[in-house]
Amino acid sequence: MSxxxxxxxxxxxxxxxxxxxxxxxxxxxxxxxxxxxxxxxEIKSNAMSVGKYTVISPNEGFxxxxxHRVTVRVNSPHGNNYHFGDHVESGNFAxxxxxxxxxxxxxxxxxxxxxxxxxxxxxxxxxxxxxxxxNVAKKGQVETMELELKKLYDTVTSIHxxxxxxREREEEMQQLNRSTNSKMATLSFVSLVICLSxxxxxxxxxxxxxxxxxxx
Amino acid sequence: xxxxxxxKMWMVLVMVTLxxxxxxxxxxxxxxxxxxxxxxxxxxxxxxxxxxxxxxHDIFWSSDHPGIDFTVTSPAGNVVQTLKGVSGDKFxxxxxxxxxxxxxxxxxxxxxxxVSFYIHVGHIPNEHDLAKDEHLDPVNVKIAExxxxxxxxxxxxxxxxxxxxxxxxxxxxTQKRVIFYTLGEYLLLSIASGLxxxxxxxxFSKSVGYNRV
Lengths: 216, 213
Fold this sequence. Notes:
The structure holds two protein chains of two kinds.
Chain A (H helix, E strand, L loop, with lengths): L1 H20 L5 E6 L3 E8 L4 E9 L13 E6 L5 E8 L1 E7 L4 E8 L8 E10 L6 H7 L4 H69 L4
Antiparallel strand pairs in A: 1-8, 2-7, 3-6, 3-8, 4-5, 4-7
Chain B lengths: L1 H17 L6 E7 L2 E8 L5 E9 L12 E6 L5 E8 L1 E7 L4 E8 L6 E10 L4 H6 L5 H68 L2 H4 L2
Antiparallel strand pairs in B: 1-8, 2-7, 3-6, 3-8, 4-5, 4-7
């Protein structure tokens, strides 16, 4: 008896704790009927990505009218389709990125005589934020503090990896700039050579032309 | 036995709710004229921080684009923050009240621009929250502060990455333009000199006496 009461108290404590720590929200977008809106995110290869979308009904508590359904398409940078939802109210998708690049999620509502604005709540997480922490917690007897610190450690590792990536990109950009610099130098020199040679050709051609015409 | 299963269930539930901590969103959107994004702020006094960078589309003939306007509107309807004519900036403010905040990008010109943005809502439990719930340690406050500090580092990184992408676009476009314009210059030069020669020949092709200048 006392055990179940304790459990109830614990559950209440958990829920309040959850409320305090739970600041998870999604981004909301408005979509005019007949238009499409695409959101893209740059994802590195082998990164986990999860997404969840819902259409918010304009009237609270009433079922969603048919005109508020959306068609969703999630594409990779090369055009492969990772998720397709036709006339759905909500859905979710998860994938591991095969190649790095811009992944797009496009929403589309069909056009109606009366233009409606559909509100979509969309949550797309990649990398660290996509990791499923409830599984990690379930695997062993992990304490709250330890889990939080694990998460912070993961965040720090991802920051470190990101720094490496930025450093690589900067190196590539330096190469690009150097090549532009040398190309400009070469092309200016070649342009000078071409200018002089064209002038020389002109001069030579006109000289022979006038000599032929017995003017010179 | 009973106590252990209780504790396990407690742990599991805490983990499940704590797994939803922290909101990260780093996305890019094409702004034709006006694009608005809504984000819900749960607590009054939360720090909302973020950044956005306008990534140019390939503009071949002009180098700079004029910039876009950014506005943040609170749920009460008043404008919390506004930035005009910028091509990318950071922002942060303390939310005066909880509710749905609107972040709008306005493109005053007709060319569509791609904006890559990142918005983060951060909450640090304070003494009021500590008093409300006895399971909340002061350590949790420190952990939340640490988490927010790391979030700001992540935000800065995302900003740098977006700026680096834009810089890269500009550099690639510069290289393409250098090559294209130089080759075009060669072509035009040779065509012009060829036309010159042809014209001079034409001038002198008729009888010599008639054309003696």
